[in-house]
Amino acid sequence: MNLEDDTQKVQRVLLDEALTKGIQQNEQQCKIWTDYKKGHQKVAETLQIFQKDLYVNCMVPIGKRALMKGKLIHTNEILACLGDGYFAKYSASGAAALCERRIQRADEMLKKLSTERDLYETKMMVIENNVFEDYVGREIVEHWNEDQIVEWKKKHREREREYHQKLAKVRQEEKKKIETEEDLFNRLDQLEIEEELAEFNRLKDEKYELLNEDELEEGECYYESENSSDSEEEEEEEEGEEEEGGGGGGGGKEREEGKEKEDSKEDNKEAAGINQLKVEIHKVKKLVSFAEPEDLLKKEKENLIKEKEKSSKNVVDSEEDVLRIEFNHSKNKLVTKSDGNSIETPADIYRLFSKPKSILKRSPNDLNPEQAPIEYSTDEEEEEEEEKEDDDNDDEDAVKPSAYETVVKDIKEKNTVEVIKEVLEKKQESRDTRPISKFKKDRQLRL
Amino acid sequence: MNPDIQKKILKFETFVNDVLKEDLAQLEQKLDAKNADIAEFLQLKAMITTFKNNGLDKSGFKTQVDIGQNFFIEAQVSDASTILLDIGLGHYMELSIDDAVAVINVRVKLLEQQIKHFRKEIARTNAHIKLILLGIRELQGFDDKM
């Protein structure tokens, strides 16, 4: 304990010395900077005086010990030392400005020095008031000797041996269990039963009514819901289109008459569709369940097969139901601007729907039916198509987002092959042209 | 060891450290000052001789004067035949250049004598220190031959 106290005392003394030294240095610096400042102030004053006269009589110092009678000439030309043996010729006012700048710098330095001094002084105060004297914590010291360590090592080795023996036993038992085929199959059956139980429980919890329960398996619920909603909307949309076509063929007058009715109908339908969508979306929830790897593999295969079938079906459907769009121009006045959420011109659609996309992956649950279609419209071609479509719908004051969606989706499905081709082409291009560095490119351009 | 001797040793040591070494430092400072003076005078003399050699004392010359903090203004000395020399205690005396050279020579000689004196003093104090250290060693009982 004595030793510790001594070391503490020594530390205290050392700290004290360091602080006093710091304060002394600070004072020295302070003196230097104040001198610097005063000198420059004087120079500035004298410059002001000299500036007034053409020449000033003075004694020219020759060395330190001798003077000569002379006069200062060219009082507006001042050679200022910039340091390191470099001089700059200033006018009197320029030199005065230089002095001012230097004085400012000196002021800043003095300010900093004073803050430093404050810090040092507060530290000194802390030490003088013995703030750390009555501290509670002491260093933790554990005493040991060679014998104790040897003993501990022996014990530790024994314990380790015991542990390893136990581990080996457990392993052997496990191996025995799955030695015969019967055991293996038993185990598998058990696992399957567990799996099925888990499945059953989950279904019970969900109370999934809208979708076919047989089809609902893990990971698939999401796709199911989307497909079903899509197909519904498609049908709906087709009906709408047919109606439009009939109206358009009839002529302008008929159209104007039937227009309001159509609108109201479509609005209703739309609303219904959206509601349905919402309901479905709310009911579908993502679930995570854990299954044994073997079962998972099986299931994945099944899923893949099912999906393939579905996609083929979809393709067939879309090929059969090719949309034919016929339209006439109405006699409506041009609407250049619209406010709020009403869609009257193509510009409105652009304004309402193409909002900045988030880069985050959307989960199907928070899919907003009005914004959903935007996700699929990525290519410019599609946008053009949109605009065509919009031209038709322009006549009818309101555009159905559902129609929009189906159209765009159809396009997408058809384009898949082309898209793949494009991608492949791009890849090949990228292979052909090796990446060139920026600088190399520059050089090539210059040549 | 004898306590008396120990006391004596302590006394000697303090004497060496507090008195003799202090004296030595002071003497060295003085010597440095004198050396600086002599260097200045020699420089001044060289300057005056260059004035004379180049005939500047009649035609006058231009120079740069420090007005503080390394700001220089050009100055013209039209008549360089007389010079004001520092003759000590902040008094300056106007002398012709030739006289100034003579005075400077005298001053330099004086300074050289002073320097000699200081050198002697320094040697003496050094000798004292050495002597006392030897005495301390003898008191401590070490062998002289070491």
TrEMBL record, chain A:
Residues 252-270, 424-435 have a biased composition (Basic and acidic residues). GO terms for molecular function: chromatin binding; phosphatase inhibitor activity; transcription corepressor activity. Pfam families: Prefoldin (PF02996). It is found in: Nucleus. GO terms for cellular component: nucleus. One of its GO terms (biological process) is negative regulation of transcription by RNA polymerase II. Residues 214-245, 377-397 have a biased composition (Acidic residues). CDD domains: Prefoldin_URI1 (cd23159). Transmembrane segments: none annotated. Residues 214-275, 358-408, 424-447 are annotated as: Disordered. Keywords: Coiled coil, Nucleus. Residues 96-213, 294-321 form a coiled coil. Belongs to the RNA polymerase II subunit 5-mediating protein family. PANTHER family: RNA POLYMERASE II SUBUNIT 5-MEDIATING PROTEIN NNX3, UNCONVENTIONAL PREFOLDIN RPB5 INTERACTOR 1. This is Unconventional prefoldin RPB5 interactor. It comes from Tetragonisca angustula.
From TrEMBL, chain B:
CDD domains: Prefoldin_UXT. It comes from the Eukaryota. GO terms for cellular component: mediator complex. Residues 17-44 form a coiled coil. The keyword Coiled coil applies. GO terms for biological process: negative regulation of transcription by RNA polymerase II; positive regulation of transcription by RNA polymerase II. Keywords: Coiled coil. One of its GO terms (molecular function) is transcription corepressor activity. Belongs to the UXT family. This is Protein UXT homolog. It comes from Tetragonisca angustula.
